[in-house]
Amino acid sequence: MHHIVASMAGSIWKIVVKEGDVVANGQDVVILESMKMEIPIPSETDGKVKALKVKEGDFVNEGDLIAIIE
User: Fold this and answer.
1) What structural domains and CATH numbers belong to the chain?
2) If pLDDT is split at 50, 70 and 90, which confidence band does 50 have?
């Protein structure tokens, strides 16, 4: 399993995938908003989204778990 974590503190602006979706390496999982910029957070592996640990509007800190890919 691979854990996707926040690269910086910010708000979850948009969730691009849903649980059960198949994702490719480099495919965006969520869009983080930080300092009025939109930062895509991609998957770092091919796999299936096992769990999303955030919802739109949530605030995350750097290193917080966003999703689990299996």
Assistant:
1) 2-69 (2.40.50.100)
2) very high
